[in-house]
Specification:
There is one protein chain. With 204 residues, the chain is mostly beta strands. The chain has 3 helices and 14 strands. It starts with a strand and ends with a strand.
Length: 204
């Protein structure tokens, strides 16, 4: 299975380095030297990472065969895609890949049905479950420990303990969202991959 793990930004310097917008919680694993990544558009790759370093809080990568600023600029906005075993789990037990969470049944602690997860939205502050209710409406559930008390992959369900107003008639319905999903997990930008990367209760 393919996951979008980054997007190439601007060239840095004159020796082929590029800035990268990281879309994975595991950059050391997915974006380390030696990693070979597919790309979108496909003709830009595959790309093998030669070196990587952090500069002023940004990840800088250099790919094999890219030796100057012109070559680096040619890669701008290219999506970086990693091949991941569908059975692989994130190292942190509190994190899950988006594809593991999609289509889980969402229930209250007493077993009352809430709906089904149809989308994961990665916001800067936290991750959100977009849950389709039985009546076809949608509600947004923050993926934080205080609300999502259990993820049971064997039973294919997420147990939630929502505060008053989150899912009742006064809840904010996400029927006309303006496309704010994004971030790592490739939930935004995963059109080429069909999956997302790690999602965690800590908002990372």
């Amino acid at each position: 299975m393919q996951l979008v793990v980054g997007r190439v930004g601007r060239a840095h310097g004159i020796k082929g380095e590029v800035t990268v917008e990281v879309r994975t919680d595991e950059p050391e694993l997915r974006l380390g030297p030696g990693a070979v990544l597919a790309t979108e558009p496909a003709q830009a790759g595959p790309l093998r990472i030669e070196t990587g370093r952090v500069h002023s809080g940004r990840l800088l990568l250099r790919f094999e065969g890219v030796r100057d600023r012109t070559g680096a600029e040619a890669l701008r906005n290219v999506l970086l895609i990693a091949e991941v075993d569908p059975e692989e789990l994130p190292e942190d037990p509190e994190e899950f890949y988006d594809h593991q969470l999609m289509d889980l049944d969402v229930v209250l602690t007493d077993g009352t049905e809430v709906g089904r997860i149809t989308e994961i939205s990665h916001l800067p502050s936290q991750d959100l479950f977009i849950v389709e209710r039985p009546d076809g409406s949608e509600v947004m559930i923050p993926f934080v420990e205080e609300i999502v008390t259990e993820i049971d992959l064997e039973e294919q369900r997420a147990v939630i303990d929502p505060p008053p107003g989150l899912i009742d008639d006064g809840a904010e319905i996400a029927s006309s969202r303006d496309g704010d999903s994004g971030g790592e997990g490739a939930s935004g930008g995963e059109g080429a991959s069909g999956g997302g990367d790690a999602t965690g209760k800590d908002g990372g």
